[in-house]
Design a protein that fits this description.
This protein is mostly beta strands. The protein contains eight helices and 54 strands. The relative contact order is 0.15.
Length: about 850
């Protein structure tokens, strides 16, 4: 069996649909799979000997599959879900566990590492790295070997290391439909022979967009991204190596391509008006529901954009110290130039917008000079590794420290046209409204077709500090030449601090300016519709002096892990046609820190979540090592689940509150299977994942003091089934090699409800998706690669994610996935 490091010729291991069972027998025509070396346990070892459920994808596999961004990895890895929610930021889930809300007060459920560096924020561009050598997806709780404790799993991204031996480089140009224009290039420069090398890489990605906006003719689903990286490797001595890495990226795009669908026309905001618009939100959304079928949206472009810049700098030292090897990783990262804003209502109706820029714009217009939002992170990890007792014990231990600071994080709650809405009296008269206005004759107002103006606006600025300290140790001991016992434990301390300044609207000042009489809670006495339409909502929102508050929390947790693995003797498995077989049993625990969120106008503390995982797995090679089959079955108890929720606040139906809280307990269980088969020039890759997740207890306590049982609600954004199948053939001719490839992927339906009543409506569930992609690659020689591709062959309409609010907005807003698109890639390597 050939042995290769990940990224230097890995045959893809993670595609697919459930594989047809193949007869186990020897055949001389079978090609042989290469041995894949992974670093899932922070040391180099064979994938087939590693007792962890891990998918490994190298550079050549990424090229074969046409994967150019991290979001595409979900199509080739089982039980991995990467999808947008309310914003263009991607939510990442492994085995049903992740983080739906992209907010700085919440730690990620799936840890993300770039060259071993922990990335704190999942909305960062850092993981769409320029010069990827390999991606590894680890499923199940991680913590006894990694910097940050993770409940769902971890994604490890490694870039190509410099080569000391000779200068080399590569360039790839892509042109395609919908204005696709990409350039990617890398150059390798030896600086000191056999001692120092530098690798420089850069990429530019451009896409005009695939969805037309009927409001102004602009296109959504666009991309405008660029990134550069530099990596210096220097062997200072025979035992000491310096690895310096820097990365910068920029993103300046429109927001998410959202469509809306009415699921409850009687919901609070669904019946409301905005000035100078003849219909209410539900009516407008119903008129525009058919736009998705036409690949169109209706979005207020000026209120929908996604901008950020990120940088990362790291110094890694590898020092061989006799019996121990020391690895030190010091990293600093910063996110700045942040401007994220979404037209959340998915229509051209000015109802719900959120994001940093809206908050800053509202405060600035009112004479407040807010700080610009910036994220900082500093981390230090020390890891020692060594082998003892005649190499029977492989021991890893170390310490991790991380300090994160977020300055000026703004969050607005501005509903309507710059905070101005109109409430029909009929809604307040309904039994569900729950609002009484002393001195206001609602019956008379309804009889005279009057409107009650509402000012719904508040903004807060937060300053957040997160600090993590941890110690970890894990040892693997060979009890025999085939039986191995692994024990690990981690101790974690987390400190959280948050200071917040809350700016509430000055209802009296607004009323005096517009000639309105304030009744209560931002609602004004009824006025004729014509008067309401003449309200000057373009003027700045008047705010009261800020109210400041703060909170501090500390948490600590011990997280153990135990694995027993057995590599079967060849004599025992040869009779059934197997070349190798490893089986393992794992019991582990994952932990994610609690935090301090915002619930309306007060800080809301939520507790840590804990996952207890039990897992049984196997990894085998058969058919003269031409077939590889890896699988696992798992059961997890999931307690104090951190979820984003929505409720109607004490201000009544117009007071929509999004907040983070714990959701009791749940069970997540399932299985995954991955297979690769080679036969002469034919290669088949397949995988399947199954996730059965359900709540045992999910009771929420609403703002009015009542409780609501949500335990029958499906897990949000978690498909029950994922599968894919990729078939390609390597056809060698006198004109070079031709590789046709067909890839199929499937994801079952997902629930996108957010508030307590969303589960009552069918529209809160997005249908499953089946994608077919085709690719033809031509390799005329070892240096040139030409590929033509068509993705979404059937031009099917699917929605990747979204948010349903049945009780508040009464709609589901959902993000379109790309239609059929095609292109040409040309790559050239030189040395």
């Amino acid at each position: 069996m050939n042995r290769v490091m990940l990224g230097s010729g890995l045959l893809p291991l993670c595609f697919g649909s459930i594989v047809t069972v193949l007869p186990i027998f020897s055949a001389p025509a079978y090609a042989q799979l290469e041995e894949v070396v992974v670093t899932a346990r922070r040391r180099e070892e064979s994938l087939q000997d590693t007792p962890i459920s891990v998918s490994a994808i190298g550079a050549s596999a990424l090229e074969d599959a046409g994967i150019t961004s991290l979001a595409d990895v979900k199509n080739i890895v089982p039980n991995l879900q990467i999808a947008p929610t309310a914003t263009k930021s991607q939510a990442i889930f492994v085995r049903g566990i992740g983080q739906r809300a992209s907010t700085p007060e919440l730690d990620p459920g799936v840890g993300q590492y770039l060259n071993g560096i922990f990335i704190a924020r999942q909305d960062s561009q850092l993981l769409d790295a320029v010069d990827v050598e390999n991606i590894q997806v680890l499923r199940g709780p991680q913590g006894t070997l990694f910097g940050k404790n993770n409940t769902g799993g971890a994604m490890l991204v490694s870039t190509v290391a410099p080569d000391f031996s000779r200068p080399s480089g590569s360039a790839t140009v892509t042109a395609g439909s919908h204005g696709r224009q990409d350039i990617k290039a890398s150059v390798n420069l030896p600086l000191i022979e056999n001692q120092m090398g530098l690798r420089l890489s850069g990429t530019v990605r451009r896409l005009d967009g695939y969805v037309k906006n009927i409001v102004d003719g602009t296109r959504f689903g666009d991309e405008d991204r660029q990134a550069v990286s530099a990596r210096l490797l220097w062997d200072l001595t025979e035992n000491l190596q310096l690895d310096v890495f820097s990365f910068w990226s920029s993103q300046d795009e429109k927001g998410q391509a959202n469509n809306c669908e009415v699921i409850n026309a009687q919901a609070a905001a669904a019946t409301f008006f905005v000035p100078q618009q003849p219909d209410n939100y539900a009516q407008r959304c119903q008129q525009q529901e058919g736009l998705a079928e036409q690949r169109k949206v209706a979005i207020n472009t000026e209120a929908s954009f996604y901008r950020q810049q990120s940088q990362l700098h790291a110094i890694k030292l590898n020092w061989h110290m006799g019996p121990l090897d020391l690895e030190s990783i010091t990293a600093y990262s910063r996110q700045y130039g942040l401007g994220k804003q979404e037209d959340v209502d998915g229509s051209d109706f000015s109802l719900v917008h959120n994001g940093e820029r809206l908050a800053l714009k509202a405060l600035t217009a009112s004479g407040v000079d807010p700080d610009q939002e910036t994220h900082y992170q500093l981390s230090q990890e020390l890891k020692f590794n060594g082998r003892f007792f005649e190499d029977k014990l492989d021991l890893t231990f170390g310490a991790f420290y991380s300090a994160e600071r977020i300055d000026g994080f703004p969050y607005p709650q501005i509903i309507g046209a710059n905070g101005v809405l109109g409430i029909p009296p009929e809604f307040l008269l309904s039994s569900t409204a729950g609002v009484a206005l002393p001195g206001v004759d609602l019956l008379s107002a309804a009889a005279n077709n009057l409107v009650l103006p509402l000012l719904s606006a508040s903004v807060n600025l937060s300053y957040i500090e997160n600090e993590t300290r941890a110690l970890f140790v894990q040892g693997s001991y060979d009890l025999t030449s085939h039986l191995q016992l692994t024990l690990g434990v981690r101790y974690t301390e987390d400190d959280k601090q948050r200071e917040i300044a809350l700016y509430n609207a000055d209802f009296n000042a607004f009323g005096l300016r517009e000639g309105l009489i304030h009744a209560q809670g931002g609602i004004y006495n009824p006025v004729p519709r014509a008067y309401f339409d003449n309200i000057d909502f373009a003027q700045p929102i008047p705010f009261l002096a800020p109210v400041s508050t703060s909170s501090e929390l500390s948490f600590d947790q011990v997280s153990p892990a135990l694995t027993v693995s057995y590599i079967w003797e060849e004599a025992d498995i040869a009779a059934i046609g197997l070349n190798s077989l490893m089986t393992y049993v794992t019991v582990s625990e994952g932990y994610k820190s609690g935090g301090i969120g915002l619930r309306g106008r007060r800080l809301n503390e939520f507790e840590p979540e804990v996952v207890e995982n039990s897992e049984v797995g196997f990894k085998l090679d058969a058919l003269d090592s031409s077939l590889r089959l890896n699988g696992a079955i798992y059961h997890m108890s999931y307690d104090q689940i951190q979820v984003q929720q929505a409720e109607t606040g004490p201000g009544g139906p117009t007071d929509v509150i999004l907040f983070l809280d714990n959701a009791g307990s749940a069970v997540v269980q399932g299985a995954e299977l991955e297979a690769t088969w080679l036969y002469e020039g034919l290669q088949v890759n397949a995988n399947a994942g199954y996730t059965d997740a359900y709540y045992r207890d999910y009771t929420v306590f609403l703002a009015d003091g009542s409780s609501f049982d949500r335990s029958a609600e499906p897990f949000a954004v978690v498909p029950k089934n994922t599968r894919s199948l990729a078939v390609q053939y390597h056809w060698q001719t006198r004109f070079g090699a031709f590789i046709p490839r067909l890839h199929y992927s499937y994801r079952s339906e997902i629930f996108v409800g957010l508030d307590a009543k969303a589960n009552l409506y069918d529209g809160a569930t997005l249908g499953g998706q089946e994608l077919y992609n085709a690719r033809l690659t031509w390799l005329p020689d070892e240096k040139l690669r030409v590929a033509m591709y068509v993705n979404n062959l059937k031009d099917s309409l699917f929605f990747g994610g979204g948010v349903a609010l049945g009780d508040n907005l009464g709609t589901t807003t959902k993000a379109q996935l790309p239609p059929r698109h095609y292109g040409l890639e040309i790559s050239y390597q030189w040395d």
